[in-house]
Design a protein that fits this description.
The protein has a four-stranded mixed sheet with strand order 1-3-4-2, sandwiched between helices. By secondary structure, the protein is α+β, with helices and mostly antiparallel strands. Strand 3 and strand 4 form a beta hairpin. 43% of the residues lie in helices and 20% in strands.
Length: 134
């Protein structure tokens, strides 16, 4: 995927594919939450710009910290899926579905909100999906 590809289009493709997988598992569709999208995109951009990959930033900020910083207060849990290097939305969702932990996040019917981010750096695309339940 070239950095010039429209990030909004790619994020929408991931959203659609994840909701299709949730439907196959009997879960309702996720809602796109702009706060979670901001947290996801910020983390994706940060990883791409600074050349790291992880659920915590080099300073130790976690998913929960990023979600709180954008004003999303989950009543239950937040979860985060990361991926690096996949070139298409189809590849990243297939990779997540092929991993037990990432798949569990995607098809957890208690998680109802999401935000998706993709950042571009020297390592290729960095993908982030944050899930929450208000």
């Amino acid at each position: 995927m070239a950095p010039t590809q429209d990030v909004g289009t790619v994020r929408a493709q991931v959203f659609e594919l994840v909701n299709a997988e949730r439907g196959l598992q009997g879960c309702g569709a996720l809602w796109e939450d702009p706060r979670l999208a901001a947290a996801a995109q910020g983390h994706a951009d940060d990883m791409a710009a600074r050349g790291y990959f992880g659920y915590s930033s080099p300073e130790g900020l976690t998913t929960a910290d990023r979600v709180a910083a954008v004003g999303y207060v989950p009543s239950q849990v937040v979860a985060e899926n990361l991926a690096g290097g996949q070139q298409t939305a189809q590849d990243v969702v297939a990779g997540w579905m092929g991993d037990a932990v990432h798949r569990a996040n995607m098809v957890n019917c208690q998680l109802v909100d999401t935000g998706i981010g993709v950042g571009f750096g020297a390592q290729g695309p960095q993908w982030v999906q944050v899930f929450g339940a208000p």
